[in-house]
Amino acid sequence: MTDQETETTAAPTHSGFAALIGATNAGKSTLLNQLVGAKVSIVSHKVQTTRAIIRGIAIHNNAQIVFMDTPGIFKPRRRLDRAMVTSAWGGAKDADIILFLIDSERGLKGDAEKILEGLKDIRQKKVLVLNKIDRVKREDLLALAQAANAAIEFERTFMISALTGSGCTDLLDYLADVLPEGPWFYPEDQISDLPMRQLAAEITREKLFLRLHQELPYASHVETEKWEERKDGSVRIEQVIYVERDSQKKIALGKNGEAIKAISTASRKELSEILEQPVHLFLFVKVRENWGDDPARFREMGLDFTK
Ligand SMILES: Nc1nc2c(ncn2[C@@H]2O[C@H](COP(=O)(O)OP(=O)(O)OP(=O)(O)O)[C@@H](O)[C@H]2O)c(=O)[nH]1
């Protein structure tokens, strides 16, 4: 078969972003592990500073499905939290499709109900995913599906068990089909460490906020620029903290570099624990004006691909 023939006969590829939303314990991490497999979706990392982190990428049929996490949507207490909530919903709005995951045993109580309310303002396609069906009677499931669909018009309702995998292939089939036609975002061999890179950036960003939350505005951003696995089993990670002004750079560095040193130590410690390998972390602080308006940055964060 010639190249041309291959091109014309191959089924079109699909790709897109699926935002996963659900109350704590709904089973998001379990579902990601089920859909994505392997260690790429690092479980249960609760970083409140996340805007839109890619948690894993599934390849199914001809589609590349990029799962985004949008945490911090619930119970905003402080001002900081409220701002994060806004951006978390922003992350959802940038997805092609939203998967609303409910723990069927808990039903629509508490956070799930609040999320359902919030979803009303989002124009994206929404899919209802009732999880933990292994623990719930069928008639209760149907009642729950009905109640949620009465509040919002979901495109589809799936009933799954993230734990056993029941119903998960149907969900993947659907996503692969419904996501826009187009080339994949990431080469297949590159996707395995992409969530790791982003997660590493989020961890440093979290440490940055923990140390400097009053002093440094939201206009800072961390990127993992290099990720090098070494023969001795350690990994060398280089990250850049982008700020908008020189004055912010001074804050990030701190007096005699104390701030950056503390941030680096805290981040390295956590990264070594998560990755289960020694980490050499190198942090740089760079000034980049208006990074917030730079579409290339958004693209790296997994947002704005569709525009
Ligand atoms: N029986 C059953 N348990 C499940 C299922 N899916 C997840 N769980 C369990 O529910 C608990 C919470 O699952 P997680 O995947 O950590 O939930 P999460 O939504 O990621 O939680 P946060 O990280 O706290 O937001 C874990 O004990 C899982 O084993 C399922 O389909 N059936």
From TrEMBL:
<feature type="region of interest" description="G4">
    <location>
        <begin position="131"/>
        <end position="134"/>
    </location>
</feature>
<feature type="region of interest" description="G2">
    <location>
        <begin position="48"/>
        <end position="52"/>
    </location>
</feature>
<comment type="similarity">
    <text>Belongs to the TRAFAC class TrmE-Era-EngA-EngB-Septin-like GTPase superfamily. Era GTPase family.</text>
</comment>
<dbReference type="InterPro" id="IPR005662">
    <property type="entry name" value="GTPase_Era-like"/>
</dbReference>
<feature type="binding site">
    <location>
        <begin position="69"/>
        <end position="73"/>
    </location>
    <ligand>
        <name>GTP</name>
    </ligand>
</feature>
<dbReference type="InterPro" id="IPR015946">
    <property type="entry name" value="KH_dom-like_a/b"/>
</dbReference>
<keyword id="KW-0699">rRNA-binding</keyword>
<keyword id="KW-0342">GTP-binding</keyword>
<keyword id="KW-1003">Cell membrane</keyword>
<dbReference type="InterPro" id="IPR006073">
    <property type="entry name" value="GTP-bd"/>
</dbReference>
<dbReference type="Pfam" id="PF01926">
    <property type="entry name" value="MMR_HSR1"/>
</dbReference>
<dbReference type="InterPro" id="IPR027417">
    <property type="entry name" value="P-loop_NTPase"/>
</dbReference>
<dbReference type="InterPro" id="IPR009019">
    <property type="entry name" value="KH_sf_prok-type"/>
</dbReference>
<dbReference type="InterPro" id="IPR004044">
    <property type="entry name" value="KH_dom_type_2"/>
</dbReference>
<feature type="region of interest" description="G5">
    <location>
        <begin position="160"/>
        <end position="162"/>
    </location>
</feature>
<feature type="domain" description="KH type-2">
    <location>
        <begin position="212"/>
        <end position="289"/>
    </location>
</feature>
<feature type="region of interest" description="G3">
    <location>
        <begin position="69"/>
        <end position="72"/>
    </location>
</feature>
<feature type="domain" description="Era-type G">
    <location>
        <begin position="14"/>
        <end position="181"/>
    </location>
</feature>
<dbReference type="Pfam" id="PF07650">
    <property type="entry name" value="KH_2"/>
</dbReference>
<feature type="binding site">
    <location>
        <begin position="131"/>
        <end position="134"/>
    </location>
    <ligand>
        <name>GTP</name>
    </ligand>
</feature>
<keyword id="KW-0547">Nucleotide-binding</keyword>
<dbReference type="InterPro" id="IPR030388">
    <property type="entry name" value="G_ERA_dom"/>
</dbReference>
<feature type="region of interest" description="G1">
    <location>
        <begin position="22"/>
        <end position="29"/>
    </location>
</feature>
<protein>
    <recommendedName>
        <fullName>GTPase Era</fullName>
    </recommendedName>
</protein>
<comment type="subunit">
    <text>Monomer.</text>
</comment>
<keyword id="KW-0694">RNA-binding</keyword>
<keyword id="KW-0963">Cytoplasm</keyword>
<dbReference type="InterPro" id="IPR005225">
    <property type="entry name" value="Small_GTP-bd"/>
</dbReference>
<keyword id="KW-0690">Ribosome biogenesis</keyword>
<keyword id="KW-0472">Membrane</keyword>
<comment type="function">
    <text>An essential GTPase that binds both GDP and GTP, with rapid nucleotide exchange. Plays a role in 16S rRNA processing and 30S ribosomal subunit biogenesis and possibly also in cell cycle regulation and energy metabolism.</text>
</comment>
<feature type="binding site">
    <location>
        <begin position="22"/>
        <end position="29"/>
    </location>
    <ligand>
        <name>GTP</name>
    </ligand>
</feature>
